[in-house]
From TrEMBL:
<dbReference type="GO" id="GO:0046872">
    <property type="term" value="F:metal ion binding"/>
</dbReference>
<dbReference type="GO" id="GO:0051539">
    <property type="term" value="F:4 iron, 4 sulfur cluster binding"/>
</dbReference>
<dbReference type="InterPro" id="IPR000581">
    <property type="entry name" value="ILV_EDD_N"/>
</dbReference>
<comment type="pathway">
    <text>Carbohydrate metabolism; Entner-Doudoroff pathway.</text>
</comment>
<protein>
    <recommendedName>
        <fullName>Phosphogluconate dehydratase</fullName>
        <ecNumber>4.2.1.12</ecNumber>
    </recommendedName>
</protein>
<comment type="function">
    <text>Catalyzes the dehydration of 6-phospho-D-gluconate to 2-dehydro-3-deoxy-6-phospho-D-gluconate.</text>
</comment>
<dbReference type="Pfam" id="PF24877">
    <property type="entry name" value="ILV_EDD_C"/>
</dbReference>
<comment type="similarity">
    <text>Belongs to the IlvD/Edd family.</text>
</comment>
<dbReference type="GO" id="GO:0019521">
    <property type="term" value="P:D-gluconate metabolic process"/>
</dbReference>
<feature type="binding site">
    <location>
        <position position="223"/>
    </location>
    <ligand>
        <name>[4Fe-4S] cluster</name>
    </ligand>
</feature>
<keyword id="KW-0004">4Fe-4S</keyword>
<keyword id="KW-0456">Lyase</keyword>
<dbReference type="GO" id="GO:0005829">
    <property type="term" value="C:cytosol"/>
</dbReference>
<dbReference type="InterPro" id="IPR042096">
    <property type="entry name" value="Dihydro-acid_dehy_C"/>
</dbReference>
<keyword id="KW-0311">Gluconate utilization</keyword>
<dbReference type="InterPro" id="IPR020558">
    <property type="entry name" value="DiOHA_6PGluconate_deHydtase_CS"/>
</dbReference>
<dbReference type="GO" id="GO:0004456">
    <property type="term" value="F:phosphogluconate dehydratase activity"/>
</dbReference>
Amino acid sequence: MGAHSGIEAITARIVERSKPHREAYIDRVRRAASRGPHRTTLSCGNLAHGFAVCSPAEKDALAGDVVPNLGIITSYNDMLSAHQPYETFPAIIREAARAAGGIAQVAGGVPAMCDGVTQGQPGMELSLFSRDAIAMSAGIGLSHNMFDAAVYLGICDKIVPGLVIAALSFGHLPAVFIPAGPMTTGLPNDEKSRIRQLYAEGKVGRAELLEAESKSYHGPGTCTFYGTANSNQMLMEIMGFHMPGASFVNPGTPLREALTREAVKRALAITALGNEFTPAGEMIDERSIVNGVVGLHATGGSTNHTMHIVAMARAAGIHLTWEDISELSDIVPLLARVYPNGLADVNHFHAAGGMGFLIRELLKTGMVHDDVRTVFGHGLEAYTVEAKLDEKGLVTRPTVPQTSGDPKVLAQIETPFQPTGGLKMLTGNIGKGVIKISAVKPERHIIEAPAIVFHDQQELQDAFKRGDLNRDFIAVVRFQGPQANGMPELHRLTPPLGVLQDRGFKVALLTDGRMSGASGKVPAAIHMTPEACDGGAIAKIQNGDMIRLDAVAGTLEVLVDAAEFEARLPAKADLSENEFGMGRELFAAFRRNVGRAEHGASVFS
């Protein structure tokens, strides 16, 4: 069936708003593509440098423009559990390319930091900016002008959005994203959260906490909760950058390797040298972006993507807004319960039917556009499958079953977990922000309480430990925006706020910083813009001001006389401690030039 009327209307609005930017972008992509494969334009010296380490046969092939050359952009490192499996991928990709009549070269590596390691640490202040640094790093790798297509090896939080921005900046090249998959299930995520809260209360020690964390994060692959990393994988599949069924297959399995080999073969097939040329910049359009947002709502995805998908869209000349995202949330039902908005992890989600089931259900009522291009071909219907191996070790794709393998994890669209999506925009006299409500109990969707103001997360931690927060309140944690200190995640605030909520107090968080893809049961109005450093009204809030957070109506107000609030001077903060150490001095130019959160918090726009 065609798209739902509301989905069509929002998509049409995005198309109209984006028209001048999108038309200019497509013109650039087509002009770049019209020049054809570029190796013949390189001087002999250029080309000699480009294939110096290749075999004689590969040199002969690359000297002309008849054999496709695949650029590999990798974010491999040994520290990220999700990215460690990529160590062996280049060899697999080169072998698969040769078997398919092509050549593959590692074009470049990009940085990949782990938010799990840097939570609450100075390095977290580089995290958001690493997205744009990754895009630039990938751009440097592809600037050698040696490639007919690119494959991107990335999984986690800022890495995939940065790679997408790069892929769309080189939109004349086909782009296939190759996942590595989630780690196997360890300690249940709700049990990990329980131990964290006990530690915050002083009821267990560091040894018990470390044991729990180590049992949860225990091997290769993405963390198993549904945070930004796994939201990335959902996005890449529903937007058509992945091969169907590829997102949530565990690392180190025969199916995982077979899917990688298949992706390489497909990347070579869709270059300009073949008959199915699929440049990334034309493949991804407004419908693809809307499908991504719908996927986020239907799965209760990461709040970080209210910035990332805006920045990704802009790289393709598409102007998506928070209003679009919020209106789509009012239409799209929640179909998945994966931690933190449920007890299951992504392995349970995949076993219940995974992406194939989800996409099939969304197509039933036109919640996603079927008439899109993907790396697999035309139409999203081709993704309503599950990937398996046949007796020859080749990938086969049977249609997903008609019923969910676990209705507590993955619902049919006729019986959703809730009629609306998991993300909501908030507006009011404090500015604009977003909230993830899929994991928040309905009785906590409206909180009215006095403000307690903090200028960093440690102040809140200290107040909790002193016993000063045993009451109803809304914690205002400001000067945490991109201009102030790079907009770190404030996930360390979850345990103390969760403890207070469990004690029966009405609590919420209001901040111009980020929370996390793991945002959970405490109401959190985040990404407030304009931020405190940008003259935002959040800097005018004082201790004791009554604040009303209404996630049902989508409003966020400080209940102070309008004239009095307007007349207040904004507070100032000493941010000198955020300017140096752990590489923060290297990102001063980013802090000076970054855009607002609602525009993607990017240095590019």
